[in-house]
């Protein structure tokens, strides 16, 4: 696991640790992926029969500028160099739905990729790096593109369940852009970890979106969280700075690949998150 110390990485490690498979969890303390020295460090740790999960990136809360983009691309280049040299048996890259064009209202794996942000551009370029270099080296590759992730251990404070829970608990309020009309598909991080485990188990390859197929508005989510936290949580509305957009996912390919998998309903996922945050209304 490359990126074991992050929000997603920790959850995947937790899921895989109970499978009996030997697991090597590498975080930023083990290798600074932005440094060329990381290539040698990773090569020393990798074996030809390893399956590798690559999830490390500087997220938008760490920067949305060109410098952050270039650091992320350097990280991708160094990981690609190490993987190409060692030729592991299977690689899973955790990308993002940010690679898709902004105006795509219904998304599947064939939706055009035209990312509107540096974050989405970074993931799309990394995908291309891995496809080209691992393809040339004969290494099977799976690319997972999750929709918006939520979970109790989130560190990014993104707009949605993660931020709403924090401000509801700390400040007794949730702030929406407009009335929170935008609809998005929110995925419990544990569900992504389950798909990663299934991808490794079946040695699946290709591109797969990870989504529930049931988009909900930010307003609905705010009201659910306000009820879970209780104690007079107020929902405030601020003037929106951009037009209302919606995004829905067609999860057919994911459910066809893993027919035993059932995404966690939002109410159940938010309830679990509340329990782990120690919320008791």
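Sequence proposed for the structure above (281 residues):
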């Amino acid at each position: 696991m490359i990126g074991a110390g992050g929000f997603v990485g920790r959850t995947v490690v937790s899921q895989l640790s109970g499978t009996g498979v030997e697991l090597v969890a590498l975080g930023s303390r083990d290798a600074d992926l932005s440094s060329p020295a990381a290539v040698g460090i990773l090569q020393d740790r990798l074996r030809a029969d390893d399956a590798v999960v690559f999830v490390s990136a500087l997220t938008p809360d760490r920067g949305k500028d060109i410098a952050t983009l270039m650091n992320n691309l350097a990280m991708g280049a160094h990981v690609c160099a190490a993987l190409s040299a060692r030729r592991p048996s299977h690689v899973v890259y955790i990308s993002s739905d940010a690679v898709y064009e902004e105006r795509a209202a219904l998304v599947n794996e064939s939706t055009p990729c035209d990312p509107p942000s540096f974050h989405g551009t970074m993931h799309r370029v990394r995908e291309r790096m891995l496809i080209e270099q691992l393809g040339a080296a004969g290494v099977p590759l799976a690319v997972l593109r999750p929709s918006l992730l939520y979970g109790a251990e989130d560190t990014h404070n993104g707009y949605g369940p993660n931020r709403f829970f924090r401000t509801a608990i700390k400040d007794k309020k949730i702030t929406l852009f407009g009335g929170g009309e935008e609809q998005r598909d929110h995925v419990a991080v544990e569900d992504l970890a389950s798909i990663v485990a299934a991808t490794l188990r079946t040695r699946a390859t290709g591109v797969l979106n990870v989504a529930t197929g049931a988009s909900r508005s930010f307003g609905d989510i705010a009201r659910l969280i306000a009820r879970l936290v209780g104690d007079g949580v107020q929902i405030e509305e601020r003037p929106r700075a951009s037009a209302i957009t919606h995004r829905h996912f067609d999860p057919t390919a994911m459910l066809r690949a893993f027919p035993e998998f059932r995404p966690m309903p939002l109410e159940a996922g938010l309830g679990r998150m509340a329990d782990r945050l120690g919320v008791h209304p």
